[in-house]
Amino acid sequence: MGGPAPMGAPGGPGGQGRPARRPGNALKVGLFAGLPLALVVGGLVGWLIGIAGAPGDLNPGAVQSEVTEVLRNDFGLSELEEVSCPDKIENTQGQSFQCTFDYGGQSQSVTVTISSGDGQLVVGAPAA
Questions:
Q1: What are phi and psi of 116, to 5 degrees?
Q2: Count of alpha carbons within 13 Å of 23, Cβ hemisphere only?
Q3: What are the contacts of 52-59 at 24+ separation with CB within 8 A?
Q4: Which of 61, 85, 87, 106 is the most buried (most CB within 10 A)?
Q5: What ranges does the record give for the region Disordered, renumbered to this chain (predicted)?
Q6: Mean pLDDT, contiguous 10-residue spans, the chain (128 residues)
Q7: Where are the domains of the chain?
């Protein structure tokens, strides 16, 4: 009959019915599988928050939507009509620009400031 099974082999001394595995393989596989997924999710999130324009520029449509939402929800301008912001807005922290809008039959403006490098906006109170 052969001899005893080798150490770590199924049924052998120290064996537990399965072949020995190298520690860390699962981590390597997880990193290689997870990295492309993280890149795709990160790109999607960037697109959704409006930084999908040219590198360094904010998406003007997303900016207009954000300004419209703030004016309606935070300043109570529910009858707000057509918000217009510049077509090219460079994403530079501290930079300010003007958006115009129609409300109550009058054209008004609001100052918008980029508060962080990731494109967060601060919408000032509408000028009368």
A1: -155, 165
A2: 0
A3: 56/90, 56/91, 56/92, 57/88, 57/89, 57/90, 57/91, 58/89, 58/90, 58/91, 58/114, 58/119
A4: 85
A5: 1-22
A6: 55 55 56 47 46 69 95 93 93 94 92 90 87
A7: 57-123
